[in-house]
Design goal:
Blueprint lengths: L12 E2 L8 H6 L5 E2 L2 E2 L25 E3 L2 H4 L1 H12 L5 E17 L1 H5 L2 E4 L2 E6 L3 E10 L4 E10 L5 E5 L5 E4 L9 E2 L3 E2 L2 E9 L8 E11 L37 H4 L3 E7 L3 E8 L14 E3 L7 H5 L2 E4 L18 E3 L1 E7 L4 E6 L8 E2 L1 E3 L10 E6 L11 E7 L22 E8 L10 E3 L4 E10 L12 E6 H8 L20 E8 L6 E2 L1 E2 L8 E4 L6 E8 L7 E7 L4 E8 L5 E6 L12 E7 L2
């Protein structure tokens, strides 16, 4: 996993553009480094929700595919899932994808418009009302607990509406906007059948080749106490999770803002080669944040770090008991959010930040955040709300209280993925004083008593006992002090001073910071005599340009592109602001290793709208 901010580079092209200024750049420009917990504003949907129920054509036809129960048809995948979870390697795997016996290619053409109803591509279709045609089909997996469908080669027109539902009849609406690179994971449904319905405007049946391919079904399992899938009626073995603490049992005397903070936390599931479960929370924006910014959602980099993972995201809200140690609510009844856009991610402090494609349901709260202190004093009390997955499904919201470790902290070293866990500006070392955390808690924010986030759960180290309730090991949290330097622009914390302009690139402003290995950051200086139509910046030596930024276009895709080149092996951070809109894009080029053969730049093909 490369130590880069934002999505991984492919052929030096960023699919999404981001990364953020360093501490020196943010602090030197007077950026506010904290925000309070606050109620979320009323949600403004980015796409119109579907209020109407589906036509339920899919319930009237034979499934287009039937799969045997997993213990017969996917025994090797079951064993691999159980083995992975027994290793206690986060994140927790909760399911996997199974290919259909025969992929079903579904194409909507003018032939469907000519008939009032019929069979097509393994499903049924019918006219609905005066302006739409609906197609529906089902997939059946014997003995399954919960299912999601994967659609490939998705090409659907504007105005398309989609639903999935199971045997219990509960329907979940979505749209083709969930697709990434032509692939789409539907919301999940409970039971052995998943039914898909797609409603297209009649004018879309024009022979343009709209459609998709149904190629895989995702199967999500109940899990036993060791993370083993429970199939075929196998009962979980008894195990003591006595340190788990139901959040409903905690009052304001223990965590003063618990009643508000719990409305910011979600249990999340996503696909990254398999289905995995983590936790996370919504963050507030900085005071005076630019209009149009959405409150982002914070979780962990080790949970997922790609746009594909973000696009597959399914978040469950309000998963908490009604009374202390009461019954878990029906997961099927919970509000959900599906799909997200990846904003930034890095192993530096093990964070991932996303923006939900559809705003979370109403009555949310946004957690505050605090990035003012490089480290936390030993003994500082922190609080966490999370959804560990033990015994069947994600637990209703659980509470954990911690103290920051002092001189007794474990030296945990640098992981193979590059997490420098002994750098306390990047990771907190914590010991819990109440409650506990388990697989599934990954990514859950740690908070001060006032609801300000100072980190999110990464892992644990220093095990001296197999008991997860032991206080002999350290829980490790990514430090929000470092995270802030990658995500400040998405929180609306934009520096107002230090912007550089050049007549070579009119309408744009720039900030650059260059950090040589082992040295302090250097604020970039603009070099006026450089390349035509290019912003040039030098570092320590005036007159020697090291960073070159061009604004190209508009290109055929309708965007202005940002192209960055460099002639330095040092870490480079660049902010680019479009003066007319105030929109800021932020980029990081990491330090080039001594063994590298080239010094790579990047190109953002969707940077700005002209």
């Amino acid at each position: 996993m490369p130590a880069i901010v934002s999505v991984r580079l492919r052929s030096l092209v960023l699919a999404l553009a981001f990364a953020l200024p360093t501490v020196a750049l943010a602090q030197g420009s007077g950026t506010v480094r904290s925000a309070p917990l606050a109620p979320a504003p009323a949600p403004v949907a980015k796409a119109a929700p579907v209020d109407e129920p589906p036509a339920r054509l899919a319930a009237a036809v034979e499934p287009l595919a039937r799969l045997a129960e997993a213990r017969l048809g996917a025994a090797d995948q079951l064993e691999a899932l159980a083995t992975r979870n027994r290793s206690d390697r986060p994140p927790l795997q909760i399911g996997f994808a199974r290919p259909l016996p025969l992929e079903r290619r579904v194409r909507f053409s003018d032939e469907l418009a000519a008939a009032p109803a019929g069979l097509h591509a393994g499903g049924a279709f019918a006219r609905v009302g005066v302006g739409s045609t609906v197609w529906g089909a089902a997939v059946e997996v014997a003995g399954s607990h919960r299912l999601r469908l994967h659609l490939a080669e998705v090409e659907l027109p504007a105005g398309t509406r989609m639903w999935v539902y199971g045997d219990d009849g509960a329907a979940f609406a979505f749209g083709p906007g969930l697709a990434h690179d032509g692939g789409l994971w539907t919301p999940s449904v409970y039971g052995p059948s998943i039914r898909l319905e797609v409603e297209l405007p009649r004018e879309a049946l024009d022979g343009a080749g709209h459609g998709f391919t149904v190629d895989r079904v995702g199967e999500i399992f109940r899990l036993g106490p060791e993370g083993e899938p429970l199939v075929g009626g196998i009962a979980p073995k008894a195990e003591d999770f006595s340190c788990l603490t139901d959040a409903t049992c905690i009052g304001a005397g223990t965590f003063p803002v618990i009643d508000q903070a719990e409305k910011a936390i979600a249990a999340i599931e996503f696909f990254d080669g398999g289905f995995f479960g983590c936790s996370g929370g919504l963050l507030n924006l900085a005071a005076g944040a630019p209009a149009g910014l959405d409150p982002p959602f914070l979780t962990a980099n080790h949970c997922f770090d790609t746009q594909a993972g973000a696009a597959s995201l399914e978040a469950f809200w309000d998963h908490r008991t009604a009374t202390c140690n009461g019954a878990a609510p029906d997961m099927n009844s919970l509000p959900r959010s599906n799909g997200a856009t990846l904003l930034a991610t890095s192993v530096e402090s093990d964070f991932t930040l996303v923006d939900f494609d559809l705003d979370p349901p109403g009555d949310r709260v946004l957690l505050g955040w605090n990035a003012e202190n490089p480290t936390l004093a030993p003994g500082t009390e922190l609080h966490r709300l999370s959804h560990p997955v033990v015994s069947f499904e994600p637990h209703p919201l659980q509470y954990t209280r911690y103290d920051v470790r002092g001189d007794d902290l474990h030296q945990c070293g640098t992981t193979k993925d590059g997490h420098d866990t002994d750098d306390l500006t990047k990771f907190h070392h914590l010991v819990f004083t109440q409650g506990g955390s388990y697989l599934g808690s990954s990514g859950a924010p740690s908070m001060l008593a006032n609801g300000q986030v100072v980190g999110q759960l990464f892992a644990a180290c220093g095990f001296e006992t197999e008991s997860a309730c032991s206080t002999a090991y350290d829980d490790l949290d990514g430090n929000f002090y470092t995270t802030f330097d990658f995500v400040s622009a998405f929180l609306g914390a934009i520096p107002e001073e230090g912007w550089l302009t050049t007549p070579q690139v009119p309408g744009f402003e720039f900030q650059v910071e260059i950090t040589p290995p082992g040295s302090a950051p250097v604020t970039g200086r603009m070099e006026p005599d450089c390349i035509v139509e290019t912003f040039c910046a030098s570092g320590a030596l005036t007159g020697r340009p090291e960073v070159f930024v061009k604004i190209i276009g508009p290109r055929p895709n309708g965007f202005l592109w940002v192209q960055i080149s460099r002639f330095t092996a040092s870490r480079v951070q660049i902010l680019v602001r479009q003066v007319s809109t105030g929109q800021v894009k932020s980029y990081v080029l990491e330090t080039v290793p001594p063994t590298a053969d080239d010094v790579a730049g990047l190109q953002d093909r969707t940077a700005f709208v002209p």
